[in-house]
Amino acid sequence: MIKNRLSVLMAEKGIKSVSELHRMTQEKGLSISRKTLDKFHNNQNNNVAYETLEILCEVLECELHELLVIDKSSKED
Description:
With 77 residues, the protein is mainly alpha-helical. It has one domain: 434 Repressor (Amino-terminal Domain) (Orthogonal Bundle), CATH 1.10.260. 53% of the residues lie in helices and 8% in strands. It has 5 helices and 2 strands; from the N terminus they run βαααααβ. Helix 2 packs across helix 3 (34-41). The longest helix has 11 residues, at 50-60. The two termini are 13 Å apart.
């Protein structure tokens, strides 16, 4: 299962809330909805647009492999 590390990256960058992250995207002139950020933050988003991933990587100054990981412990044999 693919999971995101958004909350980990936010903590590492000192971003305390999804609201703060949303403000940061707006300040950079990037468009991502608060609802999308909430769902992604809570790992409730199964279909993520490439644009969303690109925006998050830009705002968080990270690479895609730092944002998304494969959680092998969730796989069933």
